[in-house]
Amino acid sequence: MLLGVDVGGTFTDAVLLGDGVFVTAKAPSTPEDQSLGVMAAVEAALARAGRAPADVRVFAHGMTVATNALLEGRAARTALVATEGFTDVVELGRQARAQLYRLCAARPAPLVPPELRFGAPERMTPDGPLRPLTADGATALAEDVAAVAPEAVAVVLLHAYRHPRHEMAIRDALAQALPNAHVSLSHEVVGTFREYERAATTEVDAALSPLLGRYLRRLAERARAAGLPEPAIMQSSGGLADVASAAAHAARTVLSGPAAGAAGAAFAARAAGAERALCLDMGGTSADVCLVHDDAVAETGTSEIAGRPVALPTLDVHTVGAGGGSIAWRDAGGALRVGPRSAGAVPGPACYGRGGAEPTVTDANLLLGHLRDDVPLAGGIVLDRAAAEHAVGALARELGLDRLECAAGIVRVANAEMTRALRVVSVERGIDPREHALIAFGGAGPLHAVAIAQELGIERVIAPRSSGVLAALGLVVAPHRRDAQRSVLRAGASLTAEAVAADVAELAAAARAALGEPDAQVAATYELRYRGQAFELAIPFAPDAPPATPEVLRAAFEAAHEERYGYRDAEEQVELVTVRVSATTPAPPSAAPAHGGPPAGTTLRGPTIVPLPESTLAIPRGWTGTVREDGAIDVRRDGGGAAG
pTM for the whole thing? Predict the structure, then answer.
């Protein structure tokens, strides 16, 4: 059987699939040690299925350990080694301000303070060494670093993406001076140019890897003691990695949780026949949105987490602080605001009866009748209407509103935040949301999805039967994956079909070797730009795509450029900047039998509230839902078309 466990801000979800069984379970998340909540969810799923741990063949896990550590600024004691004169590259960053119109707003401080930054006596150019690093220089540097007793070291030298031998020499010297320290080398972690992004990513990798390693070792020990296989860890790229690989490079897992949801969304879109879909994953703490085209989630080569760039392949997920546990409040100007602060798993919304006293989106939905207090939520939580009335009523008095008016306002503000997020991944990128279906999942997603679809002009909403645990299901159906990338900077005479094929072959060999599968399927992504542009567009090629000749690359790039920016330039030279290659093993069978909820063929006319096994779907007036054979509910605007 296949087991997937996803850790959320409020609940930890488990899915057990196989041998004709599809079972789900929830347990409260345990922020102090996420592995406790993971094992509780696993035990609940196994008990519900009547199965033993020995029946589990694959155990896949999505978590927020690295994400939370980055958001909270928690990190191991880390030293940074950079080329002399460039030790402050992460602090200097780029000229762009954190917020354009707030001159006082600053970016987060580097994870490595100035006293733990060291200059390496070397200098590399794109063509080779200008100042070679001597053995004595590497040894003396390592001794200086060892004197401050760091737990981890990030090594970021100029042009190491092309010439890594100086970084490797420093690694060897550090292994002698600091045998127990974690060392992250920028050419291994990132492998692309742009010094700031490469340095910031390597710093994150070094600072978080010891923390993540401790958590994963603890989880693996508990899984082994329970008779479960070693967990496979979801990476930000949407593929699974073994524990050792994930622990060695924490930067690859900073979006582990959202990536699991995105993988589940792609599965749901494929099952519903929606080739173009916007996806909304609304949980207890936040809402994640992404775009699915042709069964695949859009990817990006660089993302930003907690104000820090992470220059690694990542599913293109945008997150906002609007979840079921997001707290509503009155700002200094007297306006109603929702989030980003959340009630989290402890104490949770006021209506959970666990000591929460501040009004949340879940409290507002209960007062509006979107949730029922006589039917327990997933996880066995019985809602307390009186507590919700007290919490929302206190805010209503501050705002001078009726209690139900305040509750309706809370929901509208939360919806507006999620609508804005969906516009970021669609309208702001030249993509018309009206041509897409909206896949709604997460414990609270289906409750808000149709109202958000109305704002965006979307005609079709799909609520999977397992929407409340779709991220855990995404873990079950995800493939194992490794990525390799390198900046090649090819243009003109150097941009030939043979040169590109050689780049891909070399990276494919590295990715397959890391995966341990010499025959794994590979797919390439090419980052291209017009000469003189500062940034690139990523052009993915499927494994069965035609050879990437200069003509084919140019045609694909110009089509994407015109879609994104509204024009193409037939006279300008095109540059191939970076090549990324992913190697994947086939995903497990993804057929999942329907369970719970209304039977297939049922018609649901709005306004109505539809309880699902782990979530609730709200269908307003003017919309009608039809239950599909797989249990998903296909909701369409009355008289509307078939978006997606």
Answer: 0.89
pLDDT value at position 595? 63
Which tokens in the block code for residue 443? 């414990």
Specify whether 79 is located in the same domain as 147. Answer: yes
Q: Is residue 227 part of a domain?
A: no
Same structural domain for residues 121 and 96? yes
Same domain, 472 and 485: no
Same domain, 181 and 201: yes
Q: Give the residue from 413, 442, 467 where a domain finishes.
A: 413
Using DSSP, state whether 467 is helix, strand or coil.
helix
Q: Evaluate the CA torsion angle 600, 606, 608, 609 in order and state its sign.
A: positive
Summarised one tens digit per residue, pLDDT across range 25-41 is 888 888 889 999 999 99
Q: Where are the alpha helices (DSSP H) in 89-185?
A: 89-92, 135-146, 165-177
- Tell me, yes or no, whether 471 and 485 share the same domain: no
Whole-number Å distance between alpha carbons of 68 and 593: 34
594 has a pLDDT exceeding 60: no
Structure tokens belonging to residue 181: 């320290």
Q: How far apart are the first and last CA of the chain?
A: 33
186, 157 in Cβ contact below 8 A? yes
In a domain? residue 240: no
Tokens linked to 605? 């006319």
Residue that terminates a domain, selected from 413, 447, 463? 413
Cis amide bond preceding 347, omega within 30: yes
Please state, in angstroms and rounded to a whole number, the distance separating the CA atoms of residues 317 and 125: 35
Average pLDDT of the residues in 599-614 = 91
The DSSP result for 503-523, as a single string, is HHHHHHHHHHHHHT-TT-EEE
| CATH number of the domain where residue 572 is located | 3.30.1490
Taking alpha carbons only, the member of 484, 465, 576 closest to residue 524 is 484
**In this structure, are 52 and 92 located in the same domain?**
no
Structural domain harbouring 189: 71-211
Residues 594, 411: Cα–Cα separation, whole Å: 30
Mean pLDDT for the stretch of residues 258-263: 92
Q: Is residue 16 part of a domain?
A: yes
The answer to whether 18 and 1 are in contact (CB under 8 A) is yes
Q: Is residue 527 a contact partner of residue 584, using CB atoms and an 8 Å limit?
A: no
Is 79 a domain residue? Answer: yes
Look at the chain and report how many structural domains it folds into. 5
pLDDT, tens digit, for every residue of 45-66?
999 999 999 999 999 999 988 9
**b/e per residue, 189-220, with b = 16+ CB within 10 A?**
bbbbbbbbbbbbbbbbbbbbbbbbbebbeebb
pLDDT digits (tens, 9 = 90+) for 299-345: 888 888 888 999 999 999 988 888 899 999 999 999 999 988 888 77
